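Two entries, shown back to back:
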Amino acid sequence: MATLIDRRLDGKNKSAVNRQRFIRRFKNQIKKAVTEAMNGRSITDIDNGEKVNIPARDLSEPVFGHGPGGKREAIHPGNKEFVAGDRAARPQGGGGSGGGGGQASNSGEGEDDFVFDLSREEFLELFFEDLELPNLVRTQLAKLTEFKSVRAGFSSAGNPANIDVVRSLKGAMARRMALAAPYTRRLREAEEQLQRLLAEPPVDDSRARELIEDIEHLRARARAVPFIDTFDLRYTNRVKQPQPTTQAVMFCVMDVSGSMDRARKDLAKRFFTLLYLFLKRNYEKIEVVFIRHHTVAKEVDEQEFFYSRETGGTVVSSALHLMGETMAARYPTSSWNIYVAQASDGDNWHHDSPACRDILLKQIVPFVRYYAYIEITPDRHQSLWEAYEEVKEQHPHFAMRQIDGPADIYPVFRDLFKRRVS
């Protein structure tokens, strides 16, 4: 019997497989703990790992054990209560027991919750797992970077791993038949002549020997044709075919007017930070356009969008005009999936709200895949919300949510971008 000895050194990640198996097995409990942990996070630690607590009762597993039933004989040393022949009473309760629970007991025994450390990648993967951009479709061929390998017949050269055995043998058989055909035909004629010569006495021995030599020679020539040649080999040919890409652009529109105080701007920045992290992690071909506005709107970069201190009055239509012009100039709907996320406190110049409604209905909403409006106010809704409600009645892909405080950011975000069942 062979004996195998594994002398490989233990790797530092030797428990990685067991770790992933544990995450898959208790995924529901971990996801619930991740969701609860996100509610207490700040803008500075959104991209870190997390310690999650899983109740010990959720980790219990069924076990099999032998009950106390049946007949058995046993000798217990030091027994002073029973003698041979006495009948012992059956113990109260079940025979087996599962994992312990986390509740208090009068015996002073219990189990603490199980604490599990999630890395940054594991934490973000669990949090963003069931989120997606709604209504994302494959657009026309624009920036062709995706290719699909498709079969394109056969070639006489290629990788040995791609050799087509059946096609190669068919080619070899056809070649052998073509090259050996002249010898086979002459061989058949010589054999027929030899049979006729032997059937008509007297037999001409010299002629018979000559025919026999021709037959042997023709058989040798026919056998000399190789069974398979490099010329016969055929390989599966594959070519890369361009595929439509899922290009998408997200317009992030933030109100930085004077009515947006520091606390409200901080809530808006938290929401957009979470959105930006989600987009960059889950989608490769995505562009993000940042627009800030007060009385005047302008397109800015990421740094200025999150950290600029510019402020002023409130004219929301300026941002919508700029967004519509940018969409028409750089992002045609035939090639791009367009998304919009807008955050404001809803406090707009009264005469400007109807103009915002008209711009949305005519220039923006019919051409976007999804529009999400977040109003950051603990008070009653402002005039902008009332105008946007008219847009929502006509377009089901226009979503509106209200955020009162930091605890509402993550539930609202997950509700806006949860995976829809098609």
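entry 2 starts here
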Amino acid sequence: MSQPQEPHRPFFPFGNPFRMLSPKGSQLSPRLHSLLNAFEEALAARLRKLNPKDKDDVLSLTWMKLAMESLCETHTDIKILITELELPVTDWDEKWIDVYLDISVKLLDMCIAFSSELSRLNQGHLFLQCALHNLESNTSEKLLRARSSLESWRQHIGSKNPRLENCKSILGSLVDSLSLPKVKNSAKGKVLMRAMFGVKVQTVFVCSVFDAAFSGKSKNLLDLDVSNTILWARAYSDMQNIVNGEIRDIFSRGKFTVLKQLDEVDTVVNNLYPLIQDGTGPIEVEAFRSSFSDLGMRAEKLYQGLDFLAKEVDGFFKIILSGRDALLCNLRVCDTVADPFLENNGEQVVR
């Protein structure tokens, strides 16, 4: 069934945050310009790689794995940039720390939801294995069991995962956080904020695609309008238009599932199911044999792909967790020297 498309959300609801790198205020040294350009050029190249060579690749497990790998690389790059900026935690504005900690915990929650869904989908492999095992025999009892296993697989795959329900609201809050905190008199801080902006844009895009694919709701896709004043804007816009456009087209076809390999298995199951009669055996032997072989091959491909993707999501989770732990550890070390969380009134700031 065709899903109504939501209007594009405004990207800069509070003005253009890139004005923070204007001539007013702290100037960027050649070194800082070089660091920022290197980061943004790498991000642009990464976004271009997410442009599918074939539109049929969109929402394939291979493309989703590539998207998660790309996201992991970008988050690793921002950690490297922070080190190269030589900007100690003691110089971080509290707003930056608040934003980072808030976003990181939301991303951890989303990773847990995605991992839960991948695990749930993987559990369906057992039903297909049972069906394939029973289909090796043409006895009435075995065929009935195979039919039951195929029906159980469809019911399992078609069920909803309650862990995904909060992903849309989390994504909404991440979009709201895209307006950057103001940076005063800190050239390094301005570079950090602009780089983090790019990280957040790619993160929102990838996570919204995963949420739409897993939830089966095209309205969960997000379209972000990036200012063309930034180096990677064109690469992002081109990629977003192609990927989101194709995903919406897939949804409009009313498929059982929008995940490519999962849909391929479902197609074979639908072809095989009517060939299995209630206790009388397959009607068309050749068609049965072909579907049986095809199901085994596609099922194996599906569940290998799910395993690989689950490892990438787990890797992303670990990157976010390690970055968060490192920041909290540094803050605790700084706290032994001088408490950076004390307001003028002496009250402790709780995060």
